[in-house]
Design brief:
With about 230 residues, this protein is mostly helical. It has eight helices and no strands.
């Protein structure tokens, strides 16, 4: 089992080694937005660039909430793991999955319905509002990819491994760039192609995290008896 107990050893050294991949990961997390704006601006045009740029605050509101939520869920798992409570780890993991599914459905429904009205309220210029909507609505439809990449990567970190999620994040960033050029230049999908590339890249990284958990973290292998919701844990 590839886990690391951060309660044993030199605290300062353990925290430093654990934190470095997190800091690097924050940089690569920004590459999604950088890639979107740079590639769209270079390959489609100024209006498309403006359309993608004006959706930044809405995306941050919704996706930032999703990221923060998954971080919070993983804290419970980390506490149970640090206390050597294996049953607690499984309960918190399963409960986190259920909560993530519920919030994903709620966020996806609300954000896709309100995407255009919010753009109108923000006084988005008429000449770019259609592209802005086409871009952001695809991102919102794909919230499930962002939610579960962040959830699974945070769970892996909760068990003491901050390097593996970084590797999968780098893979996703590279895949995002390749897909954006493919969808925009070859398939002529415009800003919709850029959004699809981002969602697919995040989906692939989520699947990689799932595969890693299944293969290397038997402590998270759930049996039928583990698939029960506890009011206290929830």
């Amino acid at each position: 089992m590839i886990t690391r107990n951060l309660t044993k050893g030199n605290p300062a050294k353990l925290i430093l080694l654990f934190t470095i991949p997190l800091l690097i990961g924050n940089i690569f997390q920004q590459f999604y937005n950088i890639a979107d704006t740079f590639i769209v601006g270079r390959t489609i045009g100024v209006n498309a660039l403006a359309a993608v740029g004006c959706t930044g605050s809405i995306m941050f509101l919704i996706l930032g909430f999703a990221q923060g939520l998954t971080s919070g869920l993983s804290i419970i798992t980390a506490q149970k793991f640090g206390a050597d409570d294996k049953e607690g780890v499984k309960k918190s993991y399963f409960t986190g999955v259920v909560i993530s599914i519920i919030i994903t459905i709620i966020l996806t429904t609300i954000s896709t319905i309100l995407a255009r009205p919010i753009l109108v309220l923000m006084n988005t210029p008429v000449e770019i509002i259609d592209d802005a909507y086409n871009f952001v609505v695809v991102i919102f439809i794909g919230i499930i990819a962002s939610m579960f990449f962040n959830f699974f990567s945070n769970i892996i970190r909760a068990l003491g491994d901050s390097k593996t999620p970084l590797i999968y994040l780098v893979v996703a960033c590279i895949l995002n760039i390749i897909l954006e050029f493919t969808f925009i230049l070859i398939f002529k999908m415009g800003v919709t192609g850029a959004a699809c590339a981002t969602v697919i890249a995040q989906g692939v990284s989520a699947l990689l995290c799932m595969w890693y958990i299944k293969r290397n973290l038997p402590i998270l292998k759930l049996k039928k008896s583990d698939l029960k919701l506890s009011k206290e844990t929830f």
